[in-house]
Amino acid sequence: MPEETIFSKIIRREIPADIVFQDDRVTAFRDIAPQAPTHILVIPNKLIPTANDATPEDEATLGHMFIVAGEIARKEGIAEDGYRLIMNCGEHGHQEVQHIHLHLLGGRPLGSMLKRA
Ligand code: 5GP
Known about the structure:
By secondary structure, the chain is an alpha+beta fold. The protein is 21% helix and 21% strand. The protein is globular and about 40 Å long. The termini are far apart. Bound molecules: guanosine-5'-monophosphate (5GP). Guanosine-5'-monophosphate binds at residues 6, 17, 29, 31-33, 41, 88, 94-97.
């Protein structure tokens, strides 16, 4: 069994978070350290640690995460100007929380995708 992270506690509302959307499959909440005026994390309620752990049975949930992200972008008023969806994976992807999450970032020009560190 994969180990739960703080995100499971957020899903169960055991610790505070600014939840902007929740249904039976996904939860979306504002990132605690926003990198842009809008920075929301969309996560599956089911614990999938990384993109490497996604299976065909997760297809509908993963697709739903994209649909929800788009709906939130429209509600936040950033859909027309555009935004970025990012999912980090593993060490090289700099994934810090081992519960898959889609970052929704927008509200300002975000620049090019990758910078040399
Ligand atoms: P990662 O680097 O894993 O792709 O992104 C993890 C994100 O989760 C970071 O942007 C970080 O600020 C956010 N985060 C970590 N812990 C918490 C928390 O307890 N609450 C909220 N709202 N966001 C968190």
